[in-house]
Structure formats: structure tokens, C-alpha cells
UniProtKB/TrEMBL annotation:
Keywords: Membrane, Transmembrane, Transmembrane helix. The lineage of its organism: Eukaryota, Metazoa, Ecdysozoa, Nematoda, Chromadorea. One of its GO terms (cellular component) is membrane. It comes from Pristionchus pacificus (Parasitic nematode worm). It is a multi-pass membrane protein. Belongs to the nematode receptor-like protein srd family. It comes from the Eukaryota. This is G protein-coupled receptor. The gene is WBGene00280305. It is found in: Membrane. InterPro entries: 7TM_GPCR_serpentine_rcpt_Srd, Nematode_rcpt-like_delta. It holds the Pfam family 7TM_GPCR_Srd. Coiled coil: none annotated.
Length: 294
């Protein structure tokens, strides 16, 4: 009979594989079958799909367990990266957490795009890509650069257990400048973005109501459908609150539980599974093509 920890690892790998399949399917459908009616907005959808795939690959390759110990953080990787080496696991961890930050910034960019459209200032494909890069890239780039700098302060150790290969690494002291940047980006920067999303959503719906007499019913339905889709996608990262609560309780030494530590990454990884499903559920053209391909 499998232990709870082994069951969680199996569930994590299964979820990650499903996330990768769904993300690849969405990437293919968006690039191949996007209707001309929203071809420009598809630039944003393509970026979302690629980010989902990026995060899913990082999650499946690392499959990590995070353990705070005083001012240090120990990370145990159980994923395929252990067969490549310590650097691969560190990079996988960076990809996963950086991708989470990347995703919520991309949703903000998409809301800005929808607001411009409803104002009659529809961006071109190049402008859409520039908008995405301007809003989405700076924060993840700073995060990744800080992780690269902090790599010098990471301790690494390869180990072997009865259950198979694992790799242990961690942060010696999270009070260093580069580590503080990483933690601030992961733990604090996301919340103002949620407030921004709420503001942009209200502006879009308000503008849509104001212009209702000059917009066809078909266009209004499409606008509302996109806003609803983006709202659900924006809510998906909130699953990381679970990981934040568990991490905080362990940091304060209130609880210590290996199963809970493993479940943090599993629950956080559901974003890459849910996000493509939301797109397929929201856009009929993509859903029909996906059914045909399956």
C-alpha cells in the first residue's frame, strides 16, 4: 500500500502530465485555429498558453517539497530533474515560481488589451505583443536575475533514499538582498495586481454598458465572454494561498508535516491544469477543435 507521501507524488506527476498535454493542445489550437474575429487578442492567448506550458514543465520536472528551517529554506526535489543534476532542479524551481509571477502579469496585460478594444483603440498584433512584454516581463526578469545571483548562496546535496533518487538544495539565509527580492516578488507583488485586475474589469464592464447601443449583440457577448474567461483565470493563482499558509505555519514552527509540505507544490501546480480548461470552456471554436483532435 502506498504511503501518503508516495500517493501525493504520484498525483503530482499525473496532474503535471495532464497539464502539459492540455497546454500543448491549447498552444496548437490557438496557433492553428484562431478565428479572424479575435486574431489580435489571440496574441495574448498564445502567450498565456505558452506560460501554462512553461509552468507545467517546471512543476513536473522538480516536484519539490519546501521546508523552512529558521532563516534557511530546504527544498527536496523528487522529479526527473534529480537525474540531470542539482543545477537542473534549481532551474526547474526557478521556472515554476517565476512562471507563477509571469502568469498573473500576463492576465493584467490581457485586461488592458480588452479595455483598449472597448474604447475603440484596438492594438495591432505588434502592439499587443509590445503591451504584453511591457507589463509581463519586468517582474519575472528581476525574479530570475535575483535567483541567478542567489545561486551562489545555495547549498546543494544529492541523496538517495529507499523510495528512489532525491536532490536536496536550499537557501542558506533568506535575509540576503537577492533572496529578499525573490520573496517580495513571490509573496507581495501579486496582491496589487489583483486590485489592478478588479479595477480594469470594472472599467471594461462600465464602458461596455455605456456603449451598449453602438455595439452589436454578438460583439457584446464576445466581450463579456473574454472578460469572464480572464476573471476566472485571474482567480486561479489564488490556490497558492494554500501553499503560503502552510509555509507560514511551518516557518513559525507551528506544524511540521511531510504530506502538507508535498501538497503545497501539488496544489500550486493546479494553475497550469485549470487555466487551459477555462480557455477551452470559454471559447467554443477552440473547444470544438480540441474535441476533434482528441
Amino acid at each position: 500500500m502506498l504511503s501518503i507521501e508516495a500517493s501525493l507524488l504520484a498525483a503530482h506527476m499525473g496532474l503535471s502530465c495532464l497539464s502539459i498535454i492540455l497546454s500543448i493542445l491549447l498552444v496548437y489550437v490557438v496557433f492553428r485555429y484562431t478565428p479572424a474575429s479575435f486574431a489580435t487578442f489571440a496574441v495574448m492567448l498564445k502567450c498565456h498558453a505558452l506560460i501554462d506550458l512553461y509552468v507545467a514543465v517546471g512543476s513536473s520536472s522538480s516536484m519539490q517539497r519546501v521546508i523552512p528551517v529558521n532563516w534557511s529554506i530546504i527544498i527536496i526535489s523528487y522529479g526527473p530533474c534529480v537525474y540531470v543534476g542539482s543545477t537542473a532542479c534549481y532551474v526547474s524551481c526557478t521556472i515554476f515560481f517565476g512562471g507563477q509571477s509571469f502568469f498573473i502579469h500576463s492576465i493584467v496585460a490581457s485586461f488592458v488589451f480588452r479595455l483598449l478594444v472597448i474604447r475603440g483603440q484596438t492594438p495591432t498584433a505588434r502592439q499587443a505583443l509590445a503591451l504584453f512584454c511591457a507589463i509581463s516581463l519586468p517582474d519575472p526578469l528581476v525574479y530570475s536575475a535575483s535567483r541567478c545571483i542567489y545561486y551562489r548562496r545555495v547549498y546543494l546535496k544529492e541523496s538517495h533514499s529507499a523510495g528512489g533518487n532525491i536532490l536536496i538544495f536550499g537557501f542558506v539565509d533568506v535575509r540576503s538582498f537577492s533572496a529578499c527580492i525573490v520573496l517580495v516578488i513571490l509573496l507581495l507583488f501579486g496582491w496589487p495586481l489583483f486590485a489592478t485586475i478588479i479595477y480594469l474589469r470594472s472599467k471594461i464592464l462600465s464602458k461596455l454598458n455605456q456603449n451598449s447601443s453602438s455595439i452589436s449583440e454578438k460583439s457584446k457577448n464576445m466581450q463579456r465572454k473574454f472578460v469572464t474567461m480572464l476573471t476566472f483565470q485571474a482567480a486561479v493563482p489564488l490556490v497558492q494561498l494554500y501553499a503560503a499558509v502552510i509555509f507560514s505555519l511551518e516557518f513559525m514552527d507551528i506544524i511540521r508535516n511531510p504530506a502538507l509540505e508535498l501538497s503545497e507544490h501539488l496544489v500550486s501546480g493546479t494553475k497550469s491544469f485549470l487555466s487551459p480548461l477555462i480557455v477551452f470552456r470559454s471559447i467554443d471554436q477552440y473547444r470544438r477543435k480540441a474535441y476533434l483532435l482528441i
